[in-house]
Amino acid sequence: MSEQIKVGITHGDINGVGYEILLKTFADERMQELFIPVIYGSSKSASYHRKVLDHSPVSFHIINHVDECSPGKINLLNCVKEEVRIELGTATAEAGESAFIALDNAARDLAAKKIDVLVTLPINKDTIQNDKFHFPGHTEFLQDRFAENNKALMILASNSLRIALVTTHIPLAEVSEKISKDLITEKLSTLNFSLKRDFRIETPRIAVLGLNPHAGENGLLGQEELRIIAPAVKEAQDAGILCAGPFAADGFFGTGRYREFDAVLAMYHDQGLVPFKTIAMDSGVNFTAGLPIVRTSPDHGTAYDIAGQNKASEESFRQAIYMAIDIFNNRRDYDEAGENPLRKMFFDRGKDDVRLDLTEEEEEA
User: Fold this and answer.
1) How far apart, in whole angstroms, are the C-alpha atoms of residue 266 and residue 284?
2) What confidence score (pLDDT) does residue 248 get?
3) Helix, strand or coil for residue 60?
């Protein structure tokens, strides 16, 4: 039996629904049969939320270092040891600091390969800000930690739809000036490789959305499609990527054309997330592609409005765990398949008969 994957999980904002969906997920005892969970959080916060959920059956194995984790148990690495005041449904600086401590510890263990993948529960992007976290979200933080000359790509994924973003957490007024032909071709290349390696799609088909209404209407409603997006698509096609566009976003989703493609590249955050959450809100997963590490998260926020009310669905979080494990295994299999390729076969036509020659070429003296 192969060694179980260690899944690091950060507890996110303690005033949101993070602990609720975590407790609901691990109430199913079969979960820890699939992997070894390591929750980076606070034993006191976990205890508080167990009481709020009225006698949750989940029992945590409290540890202080990842090396102490045990298979078959729900390991909670108690990295937030100070008493933290919980104010359900409220954004507080204490909750933001607690979220950062958990994320920082998990990122260090991920870098040291003490955990195999990372699943992050929702944070408040405002309260988590500090001297060490000055990013718009998890994606940018992880790119700063793990980029290694690569660029992160946000992909929202479900069983029926994958949407990647050219720009992520920036104001809408800045989108037009941020997109460029080079940026779009870079994202297309990253997306294409991720579909092959992470999702094991041999020949992925990618749709590219326009920026303006009706994809610019041949320049009448904007020039970005003609000057930037269409040339980027052409360049990517010339590089061997199977992509098409730019498509008008409304008609593309309204007519169901997304079903014809393995992924969609959207120009900005809401252009991709609005249709994605409409189609796959409960089962959608946020995956950070393009980095040497695997990180996923549920496709929703802190949900302050229902925190503590036992109304949150754990399905997206559950799918985030499954996807992280699948991608980890897919990458391993993809990389192993490419490590020792069969030596090249060639025809030796230097003789009277034509036959397949499988002999090694003699090394030059």
Assistant:
1) 16
2) 97
3) strand
In angstroms, rounded to a whole number, what is the distance separating the alpha carbons of residues 230 and 13? 41
Tens-digit pLDDT profile for residues 46-64:
999 999 988 578 899 999 9
What is the DSSP code (8-state) at residue 83? Answer: -
Dist. CA 202–CA 350, nearest whole Å: 36
Per-residue pLDDT tens for 248-257? 999 999 999 9
Please state the length of the chain.
Answer: 365
Helices 93-111 and 138-146 pack at an angle, to 10 degrees, of 30
Would the pLDDT of 113 be above 50? yes
* Residue with the two structure tokens 């229902």: 306
- Find the helix or strand (DSSP H, E) in which 78 lies: strand 74-78
- Residue 61 CA to residue 75 CA, distance in Å, equals 5
Distances (CA, A) of 57 to 38, 185, 212, 307: 18, 49, 51, 19
Give the Cβ contact number of residue 356 at 10 Å.
Answer: 8
Q: At what angle do helices 315-339 and 181-197 cross, to 10 degrees?
A: 80
| DSSP-assigned states of every residue in 256-286 | TGGGGSSEEEESSHHHHHHHHHHHHTTT-EE
DSSP sequence for 156-192: EE-SS-EEEESS-SS-GGGHHHH--HHHHHHHHHHHH
Asked if the model's pLDDT at residue 3 lies above 90, the reply is no
Q: Confidence band (pLDDT; 50, 70, 90) for 301?
A: very high
